[in-house]
Each structure stands twice: as structure tokens, then as C-alpha cells.
Amino acid sequence: MPQPGDAAHRDLHCVCCDRPLFAQADMRRLVPEHLANQHHRVLGNTKDNRLGNKILLYGSGTQGCHGRWHNHDRTEAERLGYIIRHGQFSATPMVVPVWYQQPSMGRIGWHLITDAGGWIRVDADPAADAMDLAAAVVAGMELATGLDLAHEIARMESDPT
Question: pLDDT digit string (tens) for 69-106?
Fold first, then answer.
């Protein structure tokens, strides 16, 4: 059974096809265990169990959505934030938005996944201009944390200790 803080508690359904994998009321598994996978977004880094690195996908590594992204549509999976190439943002997968397609959960669009188990809506397409994406990420993080990140960065640069 999933534990509080697992990707299953956050997502309940496959992030890309909205198939229900766990019951909301009691976290009862709705599909066989091998078909409800906490997928590690950073490839080759299955030891990184931070919640920003995990999403819930239907299927095994060879079938369903999980198999599709690993074996057939890797480029599209990277564009949608389901897969992050090892070494690309691997220190902080939270900065790579994920496309959620979960209408039954009220989640459609780009979201940042926090290591605390939540998500932040981002109103930008990562395929768009990198500066637009960076601004949307900063705005989403400021909204979630209540910090003025530009001020915090300037403060850290002026006092590196």
C-alpha cells in the first residue's frame, strides 16, 4: 500500500492517460501492482526517491503508458517532462514541468512537482521560449513559497557566506 507522500498519494491516476490506479478514499489498488508504477523521471537514477523525481504511470516498463514513454516516444516523453535525461537537471527535477492530463482530478496542463509532494501550476509550454518558461517557473515557485526569488538571489550574491 502506498505511503503518505508517495507519488500515488499525489496523483492517484496515471499522469498522462488519467486511468485510475488507486482509490481516493482508502488508497486501495485498482489495477495489478505491476501496472501502477512510480516512475523515476531522471533516467538511471532510481535511488533518487524525492517526490519531484517520481510520477505515477499506468503500465510496466514494456506496456501501457510506462512502456510507451520508455520504448516508443522517448523524445515526446522528454518534452512532456515524463523523462529527464541523466545529467540534465538531475540535481533538481523539480525545475522540469510535467504535463498532467488528468481531467477527472481537475489537472490538465503544466505543473512543477515539489519534493514535499505537491504540485504548482505553470502557465507556460516548455517547448516555448526558454525565458518564458523560466519566468513561469519562478512565478510558480514564488507563489508556492511566498518568497521574492529575485530578491533572495540578489541577497545571496551580495553575501556569499
Answer: 888 888 888 888 888 887 665 557 778 888 989 888 88
Is residue 41 within a helix (H) or strand (E), and if so which, with residue range?
A: none
98 Cβ contact list (under 8 Å, min separation 6) = 15, 41, 55, 80, 81, 82, 110, 111, 112, 113, 119
Q: What is the DSSP letter of 108?
A: E
Predicted confidence (pLDDT) per residue in 114-149, tens digit: 877 777 888 766 555 555 555 666 666 666 556 665
Which cell numbers hold the place of 14? 496515471
State how far Cα 90 lies from the chain centre: 13
Q: How far apart are CA 43 and CA 152, in angstroms?
A: 31
